[in-house]
Structures are given as C-alpha cells and as structure tokens.
Amino acid sequence: MDIMSHDSRRGRKGFAKVKNVGPKLIPFAISSCLYFMLWLPISNPSWFSALVKCLPTLCLAFFILAHSWGVGKTHPHSKKFVLGLLSSALGDVFLTWGDQGFFNHGVLAFGIGHVFYITALGLRPLRPGIALLLLLLGIGLYGAIYPCLDTGSLYALGGYSAVLTLMSWRALAQARCSGYQRSWGALSAAAGAVVFIFSDFVLAVDRFCLPLPHARFTIMSTYYLAQMLIALSVLDDPDHDSLWKTH
Question: What is the pTM assigned to this prediction?
C-alpha cells in the first residue's frame, strides 16, 4: 500500500472527524466565551465565578461522553480522560479561592488529573530520549521559579512539575510521526501537553515571581486550549493500533 496515499486518506478522515464533532464542542466554545465576556474579578471569588471558570472543562468532559454515545463505541481510555477533566474542574474551583489558602489544593487536584491522563495515554512506547529532554526542560523551568517560591508551595509545585513532565512525556511519546503509525489524536494530545506546560509556567511566574502583562488572559486561553486538544485525542479510532498493523 502506498504510504502517501494512506496518509492522505487518514488526513481526510481526521478532518471529517473534526467536522462531525464540531457541534458537540459548541457548549465548550460558548462557556469559554462566557468566561472571557464576564471576566469576573478574581479578588472577589464566589461559587458563581467558580462555576463560570470550570464550566468549559466540564463541557469537555461532556463532549467526550457525547462523542462516545454518538459513534456507538467508546475510546478505550475515554473514562480516564473524563476523570482527568473532572479533577481539573475541581482544581479550577480550588484556584478560584487560591488567595484564600486553597492554591495547593488546586495544585493537588490538577496533579491527580494529570495522573488520570498518564494512565489514559499509557506507558508504551517508552521513547527515553523524549523523557530526557522533558526532564531537562522541567528542571530548567522549575529552577527558574524556585527562588520565588515560599515554603508552602515549594514541594507542591515540585511534585506537580514532576507529574506534568511525566504526562507530557507520555503524550509526546504517543505522537508517532512516520508511516502507518501516525495518529491525529496522539498529535493533538501532544500539542495539548506542550500548551499546558506553557500555561502553567506563565501562571507560576505571574503568581510567585513578577506580574506579567495580560497574564490572566494568557493563562486561561492557553489552559482551555490545552484541555480541548487533550480531549480531542479521543477522536482516534479505538482499534487504531490494530488496524494499521494489519496492513
């Protein structure tokens, strides 16, 4: 079978999938726009502001469930992605009251969410080279904010950085990029992991080191984008791996 022809058909199939699931992403798009339109002050947290903040993430969890129901089959690890999104939504709630002493609670909730993503992404292929590069990147980013951290956040962010690095390694390791092994969903998850690293680093710098211009907009827009890209990874055919191996 001609590989380029196979890739072309796979590209068209991937585009068709995105086009078909577009309507299911409308709640996420509306709730994201609602967050930025309302732009509720973070200095006066409330349950309403917490709901507005976590609603896009909850909509992505619903998107995964709706997609599974719509196609009549479930991605093998969709439940783990849903649990990861729900943990992230809980983290959003805690971070709404981050200045009232719940910041580390939010960090823990997001860390648990990344653990669910790790279990969904799996541990094969290993690709130790990617692990080493991300380890060096993680150490560098954590080292950049280390002098700014207080005692209470020192270990919490250190542990979170390790889990985020591990999740990013598994996402990038899954992003196969040759021949029949190319996976649109895996590439989407990998892009989401990279955006997640950027978003969290901006948050850490802005909170602990120095105020950044338009930080809140940058953090939240990239955060929602990262979660959407990770959620879109369930568009892959559940039997993808077995299919390409048979050709």
Answer: 0.89
